[in-house]
Specification:
Blueprint lengths: L1 H43 L4 E3 L5 E3 L30
Antiparallel strand pairs: 1-2
């Protein structure tokens, strides 16, 4: 009986250790995404118009932060404005 309790306790500790490692890796990945977003905002400006994940146009600092299947930061595509030509000189 003691052997089963010890084995159960060992498995419980091992499970919690693995979960802690997974949570730590997840937190590290989120921090990397946040750092990449901060860098993106620094270079493009927070008021840059971009397409959000769902296709709506919004400001860069309001857009969702997301990554690809490998966990790398995905830069939202910038909205290209049409050039307006003035006919009055």
């Amino acid at each position: 009986m003691l052997y089963l309790q010890t084995k159960y306790y060992y498995n419980y500790i091992q499970y919690n250790y693995n979960m802690g490692e997974l949570l730590e890796n997840l937190l590290q990945n989120h921090l990397l995404l946040y750092e990449e977003r901060s860098r993106d905002i620094y270079f493009r400006g927070s008021t840059c118009l971009v397409y959000n994940m769902d296709g709506n146009v919004c400001l860069l600092h309001d857009a969702l932060i997301w990554g690809d299947e490998n966990g790398h930061y995905v830069k939202p595509k910038q909205v290209k404005r049409k050039k307006k030509y003035c006919c009055c000189w």
